[in-house]
Amino acid sequence: MQRRRFLASAGAAATAGVSLLSGCLGASGSDTAAYDIGMTAQAFVEAEFTVSPGETVVWHNNSARTHTVTAYEAALPEGTEFFASGGFESEQAARDAWWSDRGGALENGDEFSVTFEEPGQYDYFCIPHEQAGMLGTIYVEE
Predict the structure, then answer these.
(1) Are residues 7 and 51 in the same domain?
(2) In the prediction, which pLDDT does 9 show?
(3) Nearest one of 102, 76, 81 to 126, comparing CA atoms
(4) From the DSSP assignment, how many helices (H) and strands (E) are in the chain?
(5) CATH of the domain at 81
(6) Which of 53, 79, 110, 126 could be bridged to 106 by S-S, CB 3.0 to 4.6 A?
(7) Could you give the angle at the alpha carbon of 42 between the alpha carbons of 38 and 61, nearest 5°?
(8) In 37-106, which residue ranges form alpha helices assigned H by DSSP?
(9) Could you give the 3-state DSSP secondary structure of residue 122?
(10) For residue 123, what are the domain limits?
């Protein structure tokens, strides 16, 4: 009987420890107020994000993998500027830089930001994980 009581007590203690630990993890994980879009192994979180004109969107790589944030140039609203981590002037330049020397790389903990002035839909992707579906959309609405 003592063995069962011990196991029940140990189980209750372990469960309490997990609850306390998950509370601690939740507190540290709630630091997302510092950025808008996170990056996991093969996804942007949130994949769709809406802002007002003049607002800045901040991406944060919280993955162990290296990523990029690269606009689909042909899909940008007319008259808006191309954007890419690494500051490239075109989608092709960003792709070439990535494949030659990992240009535009965002390592774990790195951030990238863009201020969106014009309303519209801004589609973007991660160059090394594009084929895996690492795509996102920013909607800028009045």
Answers:
(1) no
(2) 40
(3) 102
(4) 2, 8
(5) 2.60.40.420
(6) 110
(7) 30
(8) 91-101
(9) strand
(10) 35-140
